[in-house]
Amino acid sequence: QLQLQESGPGLVKPSETLSLTCSVSGGSISSSSYHWGWIRQPPGRELEWIGTMYYSGSPYYNPSLKSRVTISIDTSKNQFSLKLSSVTAADTAVYYCARRMNVAGGWFDPWGRGTLVTVSS
Amino acid sequence: IQLTQSPSSLSASVGDRVTITCRASQGISSYLAWYQQKPGKAPKLLIYAASTLQSGVPSRFSGSGSGTDFTLTISSLQPEDFATYYCLQLNYYPLTFGQGTRLEIK
Q1: Average pLDDT for chain A
Q2: Averaged pLDDT for residues B42-70
């Protein structure tokens, strides 16, 4: 059974770069059947898609974050990463990683448990 | 694509039939999923491709619709169904979620 686990600092200072890793177990990140993505949820608010990437393709990013976000995949470690630069308090959120089916209209499942990142000095 | 869920919140009793609506600002074919989220937990996939029940999800959950109008129906509410529900459109980038529907116990 595929499992995803987010890891990274829970506290980031304003203007710095948020860096998170999602470790994938129980399956290969190099599978042609899936994409890999990040979604976030500010406290008490709705979900926001950040971006998605195929192991051998170019990533897709939310235009609202595109200038600050980088998603990358490390097939040797079976994990993928999120970097968000120049963070502000508005980037405080629970960050989830998830697998997306590589079909038209592919859905996200499963998700990691999420990790809270707080932006504060 | 904007997704508008209605209602934003809903009070209901165990055993009630409940319908939540998700309207897209333009047509998204059947590329819509529904998720259930409980406090402090990750969203759980209920329905994909607008009407396909995810494996392991109780049959009291059902989805319908295509184009711009979609519904999630719970045929007989159970205590564990009280949660927040989100729709997600998967037809166009950027992928977008609805604002959520909070289902509370009456």
Answers
A1: 96
A2: 98
- Is residue A119 within 8 Å of A88, Cβ to Cβ? yes
pLDDT of residue A57: 84
Q: Yes or no: say if A115 and A6 are a contact pair by the CB < 8 Å rule.
A: yes
Which residue from B55, B2, B76 is spatially nearest to A110, judged by alpha carbons?
B55
Work out the number of other CB atoms within 10 angstroms of the CB of residue A2: 13
Note the pLDDT of residue A63. 97
Cis peptide before B94 (omega within 30 of 0): yes
Give the Cα separation of B19 and A79 in Å (integer).
38
**Distance of alpha carbon A49 from alpha carbon A114, whole angstroms:** 14
State whether residue B66 is helix, strand or coil.
Answer: strand
Å between B77 CA and nearest CA of chain A: 23
* 3-state secondary structure (DSSP) of residue B40: coil
Say if the Cβ atoms of B43 and A49 lie within 8 Å. no
Token pair of A65, please?
């974050």
Closest chain A residue to the Cα of B85, Cα to Cα: A46
Task: Read off the pLDDT of residues A21-80 as tens digits, 9 standing for 90 and up.
Answer: 999 999 999 999 999 999 999 999 999 999 999 888 889 999 999 899 999 999 999 999
- Return the residue of B nearest to A100 by Cα: B90
